[in-house]
Write a structure and sequence with these properties.
- The chain is mostly helical.
- It is built from seven helices and no strands.
- α2 runs parallel beside α5.
- It is extended, with a radius of gyration of 25 Å.
- The N and C termini lie far apart (about 90 Å).
- It is found in: Membrane.
Amino acid sequence: METGGGEPSSGFPFSIVSDWTQSVSRRYQHLLDKSTPHVLYRWIGFGAVAAIYVLRVAYIQGFYIISYGLGIYILNLLIAFLSPQVDPEIQEIVDGPSLPTRSTDEFRPFVRRLPEFKFWYSITKAFCIAFIMTFFSAFDVPVFWPILLFYWLVLFFMTMKRQILHMVKYKYVPFSFGKQRYNGKKVPSNDEMSS
């Protein structure tokens, strides 16, 4: 049945599909939200997904171009994960130096360009997509994989060298382990107060 405008009078099938996709989307987002505080378990899950992908590629002995593309994408994510949200090099040109250079300067915590959760989510999703691609022979382009591996390693080391030099130049550390933590004011005990 159509109305005078040429549109269906009832969007019944479309509303069912729309309602179902919204419901699935809400459930998926709920699971992601619940997994946010469980960092170790999320990374263990990622390790399992990555191991399954590596075993599949090793068993099939193919899909090296997919693995190379995955490696480039991971390198891109890693650089964003290790980089500050505001690049000090660009900010220095625009505003002058802004990172603390003396102990009396204001403390500014390191804020990543790509937060840990988004890094985990993106890398896990990339491995899942690459795994699915291994089931389609159209993506199995014959290549000499040692050349791709060598090129990726050279690219990785050159990129990491540049990133480490950037960290040293602007004196920031993207990791929180080993840093001092503020635990609040120490309240003196009764014994300390009486002496």
